[in-house]
């Protein structure tokens, strides 16, 4: 399987990058075909909903490498892992822009609409977050946002790893071992079974396969 890890921090030697590298290691060890990109190299322009930046044929005219990222990196991936620092209890603006600008590729006037809608769905998604604070509410908003965005895109959010650090690299000292958990998420990205039941979902009583018990 193809795994793309997207690093959203401008600090190439920062905390979320350590998580990204661990996820890459895990995915590689599991036999997957891995790739890693830094958002800084691809996304420079913000989404403008004035529509004047669309060319006559509906294509995006913004002069950065977003289209390369979307069409040639994200669409071919079977799984995407986003590695990000927490900024003001949310995702960094550059990463939010990845989602915002998707609008210009899935709207009815976009010539790539069918290709992008077909290619963006069905992926397994993981999220790695480094933050200074560790109370649960600090990351609750951004985790909810990823849950809704993946639901909207017919993707599956299979795991979120949160680790704490502020000074570059100190996330490795977090006793909850986020680096190890990121490695495991990379390794198990396609094996994690997400369950989301409804009242009438037919299912066994036990979550894991085990000898019958009442
Ligand atoms: C602009 C900015 C906003 C931040 N906002 C938060 C925040 O709301 N909560 C928090 O816990 N940490 C916050 N931090 C700290 C970073 O999330 C933390 O240092 C993280 O480990 C940085 O990851 P990186 O090394 O991958 O860039 C912020 C840092 C910056 C630069």
TrEMBL record:
UniProt cross-references to SUPFAM superfamilies, sorted A to Z: Flavoproteins
UniProt protein name: NAD(P)H dehydrogenase
Positions of the NADPH-dependent FMN reductase-like domain: 1-142
Keyword Lyase included in the entry's annotation: no
MF annotations from Gene Ontology: oxidoreductase activity
Organism: Mycolicibacterium flavescens
InterPro entries, sorted: Flavoprotein-like_sf (IPR029039), FMN_Rdtase-like_dom (IPR005025), ISF_SsuE-like (IPR051796)
Key words of the record: Flavoprotein, FMN
């Amino acid at each position: 399987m193809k795994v793309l890890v997207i690093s959203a921090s401008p600090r190439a030697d920062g905390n979320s990058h350590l998580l990204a590298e661990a996820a890459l290691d895990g995915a590689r060890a599991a036999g997957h075909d891995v790739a890693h990109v830094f958002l800084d190299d691809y996304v420079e322009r913000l989404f403008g909903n004035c529509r004047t930046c669309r060319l006559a044929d509906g294509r995006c005219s913004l002069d950065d490498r977003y289209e390369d990222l979307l069409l040639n990196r994200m669409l071919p991936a079977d799984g995407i892992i986003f590695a990000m620092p927490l900024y003001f209890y949310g995702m960094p603006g550059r990463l939010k822009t990845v989602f915002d600008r998707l609008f210009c590729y899935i709207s009815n006037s976009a010539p790539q609409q069918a290709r992008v809608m077909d290619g963006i769905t069905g992926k397994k998604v993981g999220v790695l977050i480094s933050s200074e604070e560790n109370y649960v509410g600090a990351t609750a908003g951004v985790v909810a946002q990823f849950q809704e965005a993946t639901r909207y895109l017919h993707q599956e959010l299979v795991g979120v790893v949160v680790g704490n650090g502020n000074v570059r690299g100190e996330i490795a000292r977090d006793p909850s071992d986020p680096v190890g958990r990121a490695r495991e998420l990379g390794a198990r990205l396609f094996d994690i079974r997400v369950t989301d039941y409804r009242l009438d979902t037919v299912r066994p009583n036990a979550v894991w396969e085990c000898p019958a018990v009442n």
